[in-house]
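Below: protein 1.
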Amino acid sequence: MPSLRPSLSFLLPLIAGGGLLFKIPDIAPLARLELSYFLFPERFQKDHSFVDQSESKNFELTCLDFTPNPEANLNIKSYLLDKESLDIMGPDGGSSIEWAQFLAQTRLNDDRLTVITSSLSWDDTSELAILALQEQVDETPSLVIGLQGEFINSESPIPDYLKPSVIPLEIPDGFDLPEIDHIRRPPSINSNSFGISEIRGLRVEYAEDQTLVPMLIRWDKHILPSLTLASILKSHRLTSADLILEEGGYLRLGIEGIILKLDQKGRSALPRYEQEQQSASILQIYPKQAETYKIITPSSAPKSTYGLEAQIKRALSQKPVHKHTYKRWSLPSEIALLLTLISLLHLRKKWIEPLILILVIGGSVLLGKWMLLSPLVLIIIIFHLCPRSTLPQQKH
C-alpha cells in the first residue's frame, strides 16, 4: 500500500533491531563480539581486578577486587628446627620416630595449617617407626609437606605418592610452566598434599620488591602445586579439584576463595622478604600457645622456603570483594533507545551515526549499563538499505 511506504524506513529497522535484542543471547559469535566491545574501567585494571564472566551469556559481568588487605590479621608463624628443638626431639636429632613424637606433641585440633618445608625422608629406618610417623601424619589436620624437584631428562613417570596432589587443570596454550621429572629425596611417608618447595636449577626472578613464585609445576602431562599453592589450598580446606584457572591467568581457589594472578610461566608476584623464624622449641614447650597457621622449617630445607610465611600471608589477604556488576539495560529502556535512534536517523545527517555510537558507548561506561551494539548497527544498516523514495518527503 502506498500509504505504508513512508513507514518502512521506521518499521523495518525497528523490527530487525528489536528481534536481534531478543535473539542475540542464542547467537554465540555475536554474543562474544558484544563481550569484546563492552568497555568498562575494570577491563584495563589487570593487577588486582578480576571480571567474572560466568554469566556473560546473560550479558552480566561481575567485577571483583582482590587487592591485598594490609590489615588482614593472619595468625601464622614460621619455626626453625634449630639445635635446641632437635635436642628436645631426642638423641638422634630428627629421626622418623622423633618426628612422630614431635607431631603428636605439637598438634592442636584447631590447627588451620601445618607446613613442613622439607621432605620426611630417611634412607634407613625401621618399618615400625615409619608406621608410627605415618599415623601421626594422617592425624595432623591440614598438613602440607615440601619436596625438592629437578629436571634431569629422566622420562620417569610420576610416582604414585605424588598422584593425590595432581591438579586436574587444563593449561591454556601459551603457558610455559617449569618442569620436573625427579624428586631429590623421595618421602618415606604418604600424604595427600605434597607441594614442590624448590626446583633445582630454576633461576628465581623478581619484579621490583616481589618474588615471582611458581604456583604450577609440570611433570610430563601432570600439573603439581608448589609448596606455596598447596599450603594455601590446604588452609582453605580445599582440594586441587577446586582450583579454577580463568582466562588471563587468574587462578581462583573455588568460587569464593582468594584469587592469584599468574604470568605465562605460572608464577605469582608475592613478597620477597624473609621473616624472622622462631625456635621450634616453643612449639614443644608451649604447644597450646602456638599459632593456628605454622610453618616448620628443618635446617635442611631449601632457602627459598624462608619467605613462605610472607607469601602465604599475602596470598590469603587477597580475598575478592565485590566491586560492581554490569548488566544489560532493561528491555523497555533498550526499545526506547532503538526508537530514539531510528528517529534521529531520519534527520539524514552524516554525523548522526558516529554521534549515536559515541553516546551509547560513553553512556554505558558512565552509567555502568551494558547497551548492546549489534542491534544498533543492524538498525543503521537496514535504515540505509531502505530506498530514499520510501521516506516521507521533508518539508522546506
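Below: protein 2.
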Amino acid sequence: MLGRNLIRLFAEVVKSEGLVVRMHSPTWTIFHNSTEVETIIFESLDGGRGIVNSQFMVFQTTLNPGVIEIHLKGGAIKKIIHIGGVLQKNTDNSVDCALFEAFTKEDIDWESLKKSDCFSQEPVGDSSTEGDYLRKLGHSLRDDIVNSSASLS
C-alpha cells in the first residue's frame, strides 16, 4: 500500500536526518455544496449510527472510522469506507463532506481481502458480511497508520 510505504519512508528520514515532519492523510472531497444528497448515515463518535437528512438545518461533525452511506436524490446509494473525515450540512441545505483514506467498494480486491489473516474470524452479529468486512478494513487501516506514524516520534 502506497500510504504505508510513504509513512515508513518519512519515518526513516526523521530518524536519520532529524527532520520534523507532519503527516496528513490524503483527503477525498466527496461533496462540496452539493444539493444532490438526500440522507447520510455514518458512524458517530459515541459508537452509534448518525443520520443527516433534510430535517437538519445546520450540522457539522468529525467522523469516526467506518462506513459512510450516502443516499442521493433519485435513489442511488454510495457506500465509502474511511478512517475519518468531516461532514457538514449548510444553511442552504447543501452538504460538504471530506474523508481521509477513503475507498469505495470498487477499490477493494475482495478475494484477497477474504483470504487475509485480518479476517480469519467470522463476522459477528446479524449484519451483512460485506459491511463487516468494510468495518474491519477501516479499523485495520487506521491501526496500520497509527502504528506506522508512532515511528515519527
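The CA atoms of residues 76 and 103 lie 17 Å apart.
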